[in-house]
From TrEMBL:
Residue intervals passing through the bilayer: 12-35
Residues of the Chemotaxis methyl-accepting receptor HlyB-like 4HB MCP domain: 5-118
Listed name of the protein: MCP four helix bundle domain-containing protein
Superkingdom to which the source organism belongs: Bacteria
Species per Swiss-Prot/TrEMBL record: Acerihabitans sp. KWT182
Classification via InterPro entries: HlyB_4HB_MCP
Keywords, in A-Z order: Membrane, Transmembrane, Transmembrane helix
Length: 129
């Protein structure tokens, strides 16, 4: 049977049925893709984001230490000097806790290696002070 021999009503029914099937298929594929996207977002929010936040806070603490050291070098205030030195010690302890958090997090091998090297350099540096 050829398409030209089919009545117009039947042709319209076949066309709309195929269109409806394609729309449903597109919807099902979209739902599966959204579910995969949701799993990826949950992974980023629960695992990757806290690691990034801690790494950024380490950088912020380093910057605060640098600013505090500059203040200590330029200041003549003996009373404020000890509080600034205590602030530096607190920041160092905070950085150590954040390094410990990053060390316990599941990182890829290259990031773990870089973190281990940073921790070793940090220990050597503190021994010199």
């Amino acid at each position: 049977m050829r398409l030209a021999n089919i009545k117009i009503g039947r042709r319209l029914t076949i066309g709309f049925t195929l269109l409806l099937i394609l729309v449903l298929l597109t919807g099902v594929i979209s739902i599966f893709n959204l579910a995969k996207f949701n799993r990826n977002i949950i992974h980023v929010v629960s695992e990757d984001y806290p690691i990034t936040v801690n790494a950024n806070k380490i950088v912020d603490s380093f910057n605060q230490i640098i600013m505090t050291q500059q203040y200590v070098l330029l200041s003549n205030d003996a009373a404020g000097l000890q509080s600034q030195i205590n602030h530096i010690i607190d920041l160092r302890n905070e950085i150590g806790k954040r390094y410990d958090f990053l060390a316990s997090a599941s990182l890829d091998p290259s990031s773990s290696q870089v973190l281990k090297e940073l921790i070793l350099v940090r220990k050597k540096f503190y021994r010199l002070q």
